[in-house]
Each structure stands twice: as C-alpha cells, then as structure tokens.
Amino acid sequence: MKNEYGQRIKQHVQEQFGKHADKYVTSSSHAKGDDLALIHSWLQPQSDWIVLDIATGGGHVAKQLSPHVQHVIATDLTPPMLGAAAGHLKKAQCGNVTFVVADAEQLPFLDDSFDAVTCRIAAHHFPHPDKFLQEAARVLKPGRKFIFIDNIAPEDEVLGHFMNAFETMRDTSHVRCLSVNEWTSLAMEAGLQVEQSVTSRKQHHFPVWVRRTAENEEQIKNVEQFIAEADPTFHQYFSVLIEDGGVQSLQIDEWRALMSKPASYTSSI
C-alpha cells in the first residue's frame, strides 16, 4: 500500500510540474534569493567536484554551482521540468551540467559518488522523505556536505496542519511540509549530521504565488477564502496581509541546513 501511495503521488507530481515547468524557471522565489548565495558560501565548491542537485526544478542551484565545479548532475522526476531547466542553463552557458530523470527516493547512482549534494525547495513533494534523505546520504562521499532547503511547518501541530492544508489546496501535488524537529530526526536516522542551520521567513505575493500551481479561478478563490476566514492566530503567525477585500501576501518558514556525511558512515538502508 505504501508503494502504491508513493507511485500515485509521484505520477501526480509529474503531471502537475509538467504543466507548470516554465513557471519554475521564471519564478522569482525560485530564481532569486539569498539562499543561493548561501549554498556557495556553505559548500565552498572546488573546481574538481562532481555535484548532484536533486529535484533541480528550474535548474537554479545547478546554475549557481556550475561555474565553480567540474560537473553538475541535475535530476528531476519530471521530464518537461528537466527540459525547461536544460533550456534555461543552455542560455546561461552552463555547459557542464547533465540532466537525468530520477526519483529522489531511488537515485540511479552508486554509493559515495558525489562531492556535494543539494536539494532546494522540493522535498515537500516527496511521499517518503526518509527514503530521500537515505538516498542523499548514500550517494554522498564520506566526509562531504549535503545542503537541504525547504519550506517547513511550524512545530505547533495546529499551525502546521493549517499550513499544509492551504498548501495542498493551492498545489495538489503538495505532500507535506515537515517541521525542523522532524527533518532533524530523519537526518539523524539517515546517518547525516546537521552542522549548521538557519530558519528564515519567505514572503509570497499571494496573487502570483497561488497562480503558479492553481488550475482555475475557483481553486484560487477557495484558497483565498480558506486563508482569509481563518482564525486571527493563523493570520498573525503567517503574517497574512488582507487589503482591498483580498489576501495580498503571507509568509512561510523556510529551513536551510548544512549536513555532513561522517567519514565512518554506515548505511541505514
């Protein structure tokens, strides 16, 4: 049953992202952001490195690292998304990036293959986040670094449920945002050590954010109504701004973590 659930989710992710691939190339929240510079600062990439970018989306992390390493392998579950990323990076003259269709929970690479692994703003679409972290750890060379960035749910269960509810309404391929405590626990189980991390707040312009994944105006209206009519406690936590009779913006937490694979790593799989 677990495998069937995962396959259904992944098929829907492919359908959803296939339809909206170009939006993730041009999306300002994906194409820009100080987290891209942080990736470079934390990794300190070397010219002889081979790097893996899991669920590359629009290819923005691959683009950031390409000039500083020997080669980047950019993977994604959705072929049209990889096609959009490839077109984007070709224009940016990133000639050392290879694109591979791959499942983040079952990577087609040997153990200890990469000098660094990254995954940015994608893991909330993975049905089995534990398997994803195990795979990231498996393919990473001992002693090397893994950078993980994703939207996170508040530790408060009620707030977290509300967040995942409106995210699912907005994007039907959304699975679940985990909390920092949940991610930290899964990382430890996968044999990864969290060396440093930071939680930040990301503001989204609601009309743009909701239309990136919504299929029709009714869906947009339902998401807006759900947020607008929520208890003031939710509005306060997510900094919901309502003006001119509509939701204008909100803020979501994001976790950025630098993890390492110990030299004495033992697979948890």
Automatic annotation (TrEMBL):
Transmembrane segments: none annotated. SUPFAM superfamilies: S-adenosyl-L-methionine-dependent methyltransferases. It comes from the Bacteria. Residues 52-148 form the Methyltransferase type domain. Keywords: Methyltransferase, Transferase. Pfam families: Methyltransf_11. GO terms for biological process: methylation. CDD domains: AdoMet_MTases. This is Class I SAM-dependent methyltransferase.
